[in-house]
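Reproducibility note. Readers wishing to regenerate the assembly model reported in the main text can use the exact inputs given here. Chain order matters: entities are listed in the order in which they were concatenated for prediction.
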Amino acid sequence: MIHEILPVGVLQCNCSIFGDESTREALVVDPGDEIESILEVVARHGLTVKAIVITHAHIDHIGGAQKMKRATGAPVYMNAADEELRRRLDIQASWLGMATPEAADVDADLRDGDRLLVGASEVNVLHTPGHTQGSVCLWMPGEGKLVAGDTLFRDSIGRTDLPGGDGRQILRSIHEKLMPLPGGTVVFPGHGESTTVEREREFNYFLRGM
Ligand SMILES: [Zn+2]
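Running the prediction on these inputs yields the following structure tokens for the assembly.
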């Protein structure tokens, strides 16, 4: 499986591009900005984007999704609980002092337990509310990878002080949905460096006493 990670935009959101080596099908996660660079990577590998997945509707993760959709014709997947955040990109843009991007038209709701395919590889959707109500993580058991959005970070967890955030809920989501995954699972957070489930179980201060 091809996996490229591009930190995009002012907040350096990690956009992931997964591509199947035989079918050349690709999944793009969180195209927050810099769509031209993402499309360059897609073209360099000779991939066709089949789906655009949004881990949550914060502007740094969803800001470029409509542009990406127009360029590729691929459907956009997002959990419906983030619909209000998606509709209010103008407010989010004002927090960051940036221009409001066009809101992405969502084609399908991403629900807990949903399964997407990149070629023959399974991508399992885990609904992990807390950072936002519609936050999801993507678990790829065959690859031993987890795309964690802004739910779990190396040595940290997602902030819960923004509208839709809930501190107790994010801990419950991490404890119930992420910590039971195999320890060796490599975690790709929405920002910053990758880690593993095992490492966070052991060293993440925010998860102590759980
Ligand atoms: Zn976020």
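We highlight two features of this model. Residues 56, 58, 131, 150 surround zinc ion (CB under 6 Å). The chain has seven helices and 14 strands.
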